[in-house]
Every structure is written in structure tokens, then in C-alpha cells.
Design a protein that fits this description.
This is Probable nicotinate-nucleotide pyrophosphorylase [carboxylating]. Keywords: Glycosyltransferase, Pyridine nucleotide biosynthesis, Transferase. Its EC number is 2.4.2.19. With 287 residues, the chain is α/β, with parallel strands linked by helices. The chain has two domains: 126 residues, Quinolinate phosphoribosyl transferase, N-terminal domain (Aldehyde Oxidoreductase, domain 3, Alpha-Beta Complex); 139 residues, Aldolase class I (TIM Barrel). Helix content is 40%, strand content 19%. It is built from eleven helices and twelve strands. The strands form three sheets. A six-stranded parallel β-sheet has the order 6-11-10-9-8-7. Helix 3 runs antiparallel to helix 4.
């Protein structure tokens, strides 16, 4: 089955990324000058992509699409499943094909796997540290422009779940909205009257909970609350809507916040600050 993410155009992403790297449309662009100058046109390569650190894998199918875009006749073998844990030295992908094409696609393919596997790996660290099957780890909208669907896919591969995908699929009323609307209750009421089905309302004080619920909020985002305050907020909500802890949550604090009884914990740095995974690709010429 072809790799597919709802709302994401893989072919367009591959074309645009390669065009950027090749400098299409720029003076002298549209080519890999190094490979053309150094590598014979009919040379063949075989290569292995491997992990150099313990990682959770994401993005191999996207990487394969880069190689196939430049050499449709290349062979690509994916050696591990998406979302799998890989120990250092694990072979992830085996490739064979035209040397020029594979070298031209190499950086885009590696960048993608390193970035997405870095996100999946960080997510897995948070899920493991949370160690709470009753609470779900969520990402946020803190994603790189143009990469949201891929980054949120990587979150799922690491064992997390996605918050809203964008500005369109749920209302999220935060402090700046409240500053204009005047109050929690008024902001939620306006969203409800506008016909919005899912209304997430941020509260940072306990006395904001009842007005938000009375006005029709469908989820409460409990912002920057300590564990004791989170427990009290969960008690007040009493299961009427799902609750989410958010704001400055780290590997050191996530377990205590998740144990407060909230349904979700959201962490922006999963996509905003995940370091790239250490993944390499070594080629060998074929006779």
C-alpha cells in the first residue's frame, strides 16, 4: 500500500524539496553539479541507511519517495516498520540504483528521516516517562510551516496523539482571545453562537472553570497549573468535559502532571524542539 497521510501531498512535497535543493528556476540551477561532474552517468550504487543512536523510526517511506522520484527503476527495501524502536547499528533501508540519482536525493531523504525520527524518538521518551495509559500525550500547532502533516505523523509514530490539526477544526480560546472578548464565558458563548462544534478553552485560574463550562466549552486546557492545582481543577470539572494540562511541561514534570487525573497532556516542544536523530547512509559502488 502506498504511503498516505490525509491532507498531505507526498508527490508535491518531494518535487518541491528536490527543486529547492537543485535550484530550479535560478541561474545555473536545475542540476546537481557535483554528481554530474564526478559520477559517470551509468554508474550504480547500493546503499544502507542505519541508525547510530536508539531511535523510534519515522519517515522511511517519505525518504524512499525521494529516491524513486529521481530513479524510478531503483530498488528500495524498508527493513523496519514505521514507529518501531531501533537500536544503534540497526539497518533501516537498503537501496540500489543509479549513483547520480541516489546521491542527488540523499540529503533530502536523510534530512526527512532524521527530523521525523527525532520527533518520534522525543515523543517516545515523553510517553515512557509519563507511564500513564489513562492519559494521552498530545502535540500542538508549534510545527514548521509546510511540515505540519509530516511532523504530526511523526508524533503518532512515537506513541503520541494529535491535537487539532490547524485553525479550522476546533476553536481554541486563549488569553489573547479573552482579552478582546472580555471574559471566559463571553468568549465561549460567542464561539458556541457561531456554530463551532468543538470549543477548547484555556483557563489558568480555578474560578474560570464554571463560567467556561456554563457557556458550553467542550474541553478545558488547564494552563501552567501545578499538580495540586490540576487535581483540584479535575475535581471541579468532575468529568463533565475532558481536561488537558499544558504549559512548560518537561520530561521531569510530565509524570506528576499526568497523574493529576487530566485526560491529556500537551507538549509543544515535541515538534518545536526535537533534535534530529543520528541516522547515516553509506553507499558502495557496484561493478
Amino acid at each position: 500500500m502506498a504511503f498516505q497521510i490525509d491532507g498531505f501531498d507526498l508527490d508535491n512535497f518531494v518535487r518541491a524539496t528536490l527543486a529547492e535543493d537543485l535550484g530550479e528556476g535560478l541561474p545555473g540551477g536545475g542540476r546537481d553539479v557535483t554528481s554530474q561532474a564526478v559520477i559517470p552517468a551509468d554508474a550504480k550504487f547500493t546503499g544502507v541507511m542505519d541508525s547510530r543512536d536508539p531511535i523510534s523510526v519515522a519517515g522511511l517511506s517519505v525518504a524512499a519517495a525521494f529516491f524513486r522520484a529521481l530513479d524510478p527503476d531503483c530498488t528500495v527495501e524498508l527493513l523496519v516498520e514505521e514507529g518501531a524502536k531501533a537500536e544503534p547499528g540497526t539497518d533501516l533501508m537498503r537501496i540500489e540504483g543509479n549513483a547520480r540519482a541516489l546521491l542527488t536525493a540523499e540529503r533530502a531523504a536523510l534530512n526527512t528521516v532524521q527530523h521525523l525520527s527525532g520527533i518520534a524518538t522525543l515523543v517516545r521518551h515523553y510517553v515512557d516517562r509519563m507511564d500513564n495509559p489513562e492519559c494521552t500525550l498530545l502535540d500542538t500547532r508549534k510545527t514548521l510551516p509546510g511540515l505540519r502533516h509530516l511532523e504530526k505523523y511523526a508524533v503518532r509514530m512515537g506513541g503520541g496523539a494529535n491535537h487539532r490539526m490547524g485553525l479550522w477544526d476546533a476553536a481554541m480560546i486563549k488569553d489573547n482571545h479573552l482579552a478582546v472578548a472580555g471574559s471566559v464565558g463571553e468568549a465561549v458563548r460567542r464561539a458556541r453562537e457561531a456554530g463551532v462544534g468543538e470549543i477548547i478553552c484555556e483557563v489558568d485560574r480555578l474560578d474560570q472553570i464554571e463560567p467556561a463550562l456554563d457557556a458550553g466549552a467542550t474541553r478545558l486546557l488547564l494552563d501552567n497549573m501545578a499538580p495540586d492545582m490540576l487535581r483540584e481543577a479535575v475535581r471541579i470539572v468532575a468529568g463533565r468535559v475532558p481536561t488537558e494540562a499544558s504549559g512548560g511541561i518537561t520530561l521531569e514534570t510530565i509524570a506528576a502532571k499526568a497523574a493529576s487525573g487530566v485526560d491529556y497532556v500537551s507538549v509543544g516542544r515535541l515538534t518545536q524542539s526535537a533534535p534530529a536523530a543520528d541516522i547515516g547512509l553509506d553507499f558502495t559502488p557496484l561493478d
